[in-house]
Amino acid sequence: MIDLQLKKRLTGAGGDIFLQIDCQMQSGEIVGIYGPSGAGKSSILRMLAGLMVPDQGFIQVGEEVWLDTSKGINLRPQHRNIGMVFQEYSLFPNMTVLQNLEFAMEKGADRKLTKEMLEIIGMRELADQRPQLLSGGQKQRVALARAMLRQPKLLLLDEPLSALDREMRKNLQQYILQFHRDFHLSTLIVSHDAAEITRMSERLWVLENGSFVYDGESNLYFT
Amino acid sequence: MLETAPFYLTVKLAFLTTIILFVLGVPLGYWLAFSRFRVKFMVEALVSLPLVLPPTVLGFYLLLAFSPENALGKFLDTYFDLRLVFTFPGLVVASVIYSLPFMVQPLKSGFTSIPKAWLDAAYTMGKSRRVTLRKVLLPNMKNAMLTGGVLTFAHTVGEFGVILMVGGNIPNETRVISVAIYNEVEAMNYGVANTYSLILVGFSFLVLMVTYFINHQKNSLLTYD
């Protein structure tokens, strides 16, 4: 179970909004966060990852408390067991595909896993390429694989598909769902694409002006 | 008579200054690029001060500070047996201060040019700031490092005012090439001054040409595109 209570004043292009959410998700669930841009969707993921600090908040994942502002607890991103994929491609150009994957591993971890991961995403032949030479879809596949290598409890996907064309999207959606199932993850996916989010997630949180206005089944919201 | 010592001193000074400024410039540039410290602008102004000050002003105050008559100079003299006025180590310290902006500014722009998502990705993969700096940031800003290094080196080679103030004109100790030229002109040895000067012009041109050549080439030396 993941318990999430966050309060934060966000300054955006359209003025300040006050983000205030209080929600829970079961482990193993895949939840979509949907809403207009600037509503604070990405900020929620960033606060979960520890990349942004809320004004007030509490985050508990399983037995672990990651954040409790009332007690001054705030785990650094490095100590939160998460995998995150960003909208912008975030592969490192100074490393090959394989080196990008190996970078994610803990020191002394089994290197066999990176090879297996390359097999899973079907990119064994491209292991020694630099990421700049890959297509957008291939880049995001590597980024997804890289996020998985640390065997996270929680997978955070911040509009990971929005820069891709339709074919690539479908292909990547399959990988995400497969990883979610095979690695027993809890997954949060942010998107502003209604069709995509219905396909990906059973449960939906709709964010408007900083608070959730809907929490329920995805397909019911859009019909 | 043409001597080799001024050349040797100049290259040694420029080389040491560049190395020291790399060590200082990386953390300082990093801090200037990423810190949200409220009075950062004050530090930025301080770092850039040598750009606008006449070298003689800087040299004058360094001379006062290094003097064994005064607190800092006395402290260094008593506890470290270090004399910074009219000595080569003094020139190194003065050059480091004088060339600081030439190293820090390019490095700061280098850090700023790295996409924020790369840092976020590395942190969520459990990598510390230090590892991220070494494995992700620095390898992707070789351009900035080359620019900072070359500018610092060339600027130190071209120093005159600060050196004359802090180091004076002592053969084999502080008489670098720019001071040697001044010395020869004072003694009306225009021929020797001309030879020194021509060598300096040739050297400076060559260094800048090579730098711009490497920078213009989109080659694997600097970028990964």
Q: Structural class given helices, strands, pairing of chain B?
A: mainly alpha
User: pLDDT average of chain B, as an integer?
Assistant: 92
Order of helices and strands of chain B: HHHHHHHHHHH
Return residue spans of chain B where pLDDT drops below 50 for at least 5 consecutive residues.
none
Question: Please, what is the oligomeric state?
Answer: heterodimer
Global outline of chain B: globular
Low-confidence stretches of chain A: none
Q: What is the number of strand segments of chain A?
A: 11
Bin the helical content of chain A: 25-40%
Protein structure class of chain A: alpha/beta
Total number of helices of chain A = 7
Integer-rounded radius of gyration of chain A: 17 Å
Largest sheet report of chain A: 6 strands, mixed
Strand percentage of chain B lies at under 5%
Order of strands in the sheet with the most strands of chain A?
A: 7-8-9-3-10-11
Gross morphology of chain A is globular
Mean pLDDT of chain A, to the nearest integer, reads 91
Using DSSP, what is the number of strands of chain B?
0
The secondary-structure element order of chain A is EEEHEEEEHHHEHEHEEH
Give the biggest sheet of chain B: none
Proportion of residues in helical segments of chain B? over 70%
Question: What are the defining features of this structure?
Answer:
heterodimer, A: 223 residues, alpha/beta, 11 strands, 30% helix, globular, B: 225 residues, mainly alpha, 11 helices, 75% helix, 0% strand
Description:
- The complex is a heterodimer of chains A (about 220) and B (about 220).
- Chain A has about 220 residues and is an alpha/beta fold.
- Chain A has 7 helices and 11 strands.
- A 6-stranded mixed beta sheet of chain A has the order 7-8-9-3-10-11, with helices on both faces.
- The mean pLDDT of chain A is about 90.
- Chain B is mainly α.
- Helix content of chain B is about 75%, strand content about 0%.
- Chain B is built from 11 helices and no strands.
- In chain B, α1 packs across α8 (about 140-155) and α5 packs antiparallel against α9.
- The radius of gyration of chain B is 20 Å and the shape is globular.
- The mean pLDDT of chain B is about 90.
